[in-house]
Amino acid sequence: MSAPSDIRSAVVPAAGLGTRFLPATKSVPKELLPVVDTPGIELVAAEAAEAGAEQLLIVTSPGKESVAAYFEPAPELEKNLEEKGKTAQLAAVRRAPSLLAVKTVYQYEPLGLGHAVAQAEQALADDEQAIAVLLPDDLVLPTGVLGRMAQVRAEKGGSVLCAFDIPKAQISPYGVFDVSDTDDPDVKQVHGMVEKPSAEEAPSTYAAAGRYVLDRAIFDALRRITPGSGGELQLTDAVQLLIDEGHPVHVVVHRGGRHDLGNPGGYVRAFVDFALRHPDYGDDLRSWLAARLEG
Ligand code: G1P
Hints:
By secondary structure, this protein is α/β, with parallel strands linked by helices. It contains ten helices and 13 strands.
């Protein structure tokens, strides 16, 4: 699915320390941990490319250069695989560099998601009117929601976010939307957004799921917010500021699956889910798991 041409850059905030994934993330950025054999960042880059993005803007921090380096061609390795006739491996190695152009911008201080996204502005062309943002911890399945979000922006203008309808008891780690219905049951108008509310204070059960199509106006809003939840500059607060100023904001409600790669428990589920669907490993894993669960 291709997005309207006004979304050319996909921003991926990847500057975090990965503290929920220590000790592995002492030396391997969590974005490079494999889901079966493919780093999570490649899955997210493929999703952005599928939605029509031409450029991936990785927001990184000093010491995490290996995340962007993963997208560089590896001519020596390719030559070696080519000589040995390992065509499947060769295709796998060439996939990431061929998806889209990759550029790095730095976030030098961990001041929050809003601050991370703000760093992307310097890398945009003057005529880019909107960006996509993909949080690499979140896998939203099946892919395609970004294309739908871009369509909604083309119809209604403004910014469009992705929402999941989740049980109220699980709502507090998320940004939560105050919404009203539109003619389409999967598209809601957003009247407010609050970061990490308690279950009692949550305005709905619609939670932000790590996919955003944001009008360029977000950068101006990001310059005007003050620290919010957790003392951090929150993307949610910039979206709320835009709403306060009359900017149209909608959500596309995604009814599919989701994985959180940012912590070991969620990562294991994603790994098993992808492995079960893998042509080489799926059948064997399924029977082993069945036996293991009985034993
Ligand atoms: C971030 C956002 C939050 C969103 C969540 C989705 O929170 O701030 O609004 O619901 O991602 O995963 P974080 O998970 O970084 O605390």
